[in-house]
From TrEMBL:
Protein name, as recorded: Uncharacterized protein
Gene3D superfamilies associated with the record: Chloramphenicol acetyltransferase-like domain
Lineage: Bacteria, Bacillati, Actinomycetota, Actinomycetes, Mycobacteriales
């Protein structure tokens, strides 16, 4: 098990510290009745023994790689005693997503549950993207529900003396030098991460530092209808999601009028023994929004080619990651934005999900929610960056569950506004969904 953070994980952490913006992964579950509280407690304990049961400890060297250490105390588990109105389910998920999360000082994740006025129960887990990516949080949820995996052993916090820490991290830096030199050479060839000219007008100076809650919704679509809609257009589930993201991006002003949709697709590289927080690389796909709702063949071909290219050779920005420990704070802001969301539309299809993911209390939930949410988003950053759109989907049995997080400068940036845009985009593909 590797003690030091990978380059991408260090970049994510440095970017979070430089910008103050925290990127999170959130899972939610909805049961039609009460839950087994003992089962939730078992899930909570098991989840905290895996990748979530750690924190980031900084290197004493300004250019050193940080390392993983054990979390000093268990993450919070809050079970609400007062039922919430069913209509406030989305509000409750939002409230949980904004509770304090810090992968260095803790807590790096938390779990909560609440009863609803109609007898249903909602459950959620929220974790820092600096600890787990989307695929990892699903794998850890399945592992925790099964309860069979051995706990991961992390070094104790501050278990090294100052002298030993300096010597060990200096030696690690020396071992990393060949990677850093290769990144310098790649830097002469790679370009990216610059503004694309689509930024919105900056808000008044008094409003730039105000925080913005980026709307997040979930949509549940019948899997049979989803497959049929894809087949009628010469596509599959992956190209249909790309088409839906493109159409939604057009409605939110992120493409169209001669501009293609630029989709950023995360490709997981996670293995069963992988302890990286972010085990992925990116593929960039351009999709013409003009006819995508009628024909997905071009999108499907473009996705296949882009994925093959990304698997063969990393994105230019990723080739620069070995320089991460050496970059100044200002550059960390730009690199993090380029790696995690500066492109117009992030689109990820997680495919068929392990049924155990849906069982936080040991029994299957009725709904699984996927929510790629952020904390501490400043108005100046998101408006100046042209907004945000993230679409993620997975399949659980007979349902396709889709999470959408989106903000359009000058648009209707409420959950109702985002849901209306998503419903209209679905209608272009002859689909309807259940919205939360």
């Amino acid at each position: 098990m590797t003690a030091h953070l990978g380059y991408l994980d260090q970049a994510a952490h440095l970017s979070m510290r430089a910008t103050g913006r925290r990127q999170l992964v959130q899972l939610g579950w909805l049961y039609s009745g009460p839950v087994d509280r003992q089962g939730l407690a078992r899930f909570h304990r098991a989840f905290g023994r895996g990748l979530a049961g750690r924190r980031i400890e900084r290197s004493p060297l300004p250019f050193g790689r940080h390392r993983w250490v054990a979390a000093a105390e268990p993450a919070p588990l809050q079970i609400g005693e007062n039922p919430r109105p069913r209509a406030e389910l989305g509000d409750w998920f939002d409230e949980c997503s904004q509770l304090p999360i810090d992968p260095e000082h803790g807590p790096g994740w938390h779990m909560a549950a609440v009863a609803l006025s109609d007898g249903a129960t909602a459950v959620t887990v929220v974790a820092s993207h600096c600890l787990l990516d989307g695929v990892a949080v699903l794998a850890e949820a399945a592992r925790a529900a099964g309860g069979a995996a051995e706990p991961l052993r992390w070094p104790a916090p501050r278990s090294r003396s100052a002298a030993r820490a300096v010597l060990a991290d200096a030696a690690q830096t020396c071992r990393d030098l060949p990677d850093a030199l290769a990144a310098v050479r790649a830097g002469w060839r790679a370009r990216g991460g610059a503004p694309d000219g689509r930024a919105g007008a900056p808000p008044p100076s008094a409003e730039r530092d105000q925080t913005v809650l980026v709307p997040a919704i979930n949509v549940f679509v019948d899997a049979g209808s989803w497959d049929a809609a894809a087949a009628r257009r010469g596509g599959n589930g992956y190209s249909l999601l790309a088409g839906l993201a493109t159409e939604l991006g057009r409605r939110m002003g992120r493409c169209g009028e001669g501009r293609p949709a630029e989709l950023l697709i995360a490709l997981s590289e996670r293995t069963d023994t992988d302890t990286r927080a972010n085990a992925l690389r990116m593929a960039t796909v351009e999709v013409d929004p003009g006819g995508v709702a009628a024909d997905l063949t071009a999108a499907r071909t473009a996705i296949r080619a882009a994925v093959a290219s990304a698997r063969a050779e990393p994105d230019g920005l990723f080739a620069l990651l070995p320089l991460t420990p050496f970059i100044p704070r200002r550059t960390a802001r730009r690199l993090g934005a380029a790696l995690f969301g500066s492109r117009p539309i992030s689109c990820s299809n997680l495919g068929e999900l392990d049924p155990a993911v849906c069982c936080p209390d040991g029994t299957p939930a009725d709904r699984l929610f996927l929510r790629p949410v952020d904390q501490n988003v400043r108005a100046g950053d998101i408006i100046g960056g042209g907004g945000q759109l993230v679409v993620v989907a997975g399949r659980t049995g007979a349902t396709v569950t889709i999470g959408v997080v989106g903000y359009a400068p000058g648009g209707d940036n409420t959950r109702a506004g985002l849901a209306a845009a998503a419903a209209a985009a679905l209608a272009e593909f002859e689909l309807t969904g259940e919205f939360v």
